[in-house]
Specification:
With 79 residues, the protein is an all-alpha fold. The protein has 2 domains: 37 residues; 39 residues.
């Protein structure tokens, strides 16, 4: 009887390890796909806003470049 219970415990342990492995792989793949919460490259508009806030560009430069970004995105949608 004791031997049978030990076998059941081993099966449960293997099942838990399999579930942990699946969760670990899912987390790894999510991070690689870019769902890491801020990991990866910022979007062009975010870079533009950061540069304006840091004083690297003037408001006039910002509006010029923002308009160019908007125009380039509209052109992509038409294709």
């Amino acid at each position: 009887m004791l031997n049978m219970m030990g076998g059941m415990g081993l099966i449960v342990l293997m099942g838990l390890l399999a579930v942990a492995a699946v969760i670990g792989v899912a987390i790894y793949l999510a991070i690689r796909a870019g769902f890491g919460g801020g990991l990866g490259e910022p979007k062009p508009r975010e870079v533009l806003q950061r540069r304006l806030a840091a004083g690297e560009i003037t408001a006039e430069d910002y509006y010029e470049r923002e308009c160019a970004l908007r125009d380039s995105q509209v052109g992509r949608r038409r294709r």
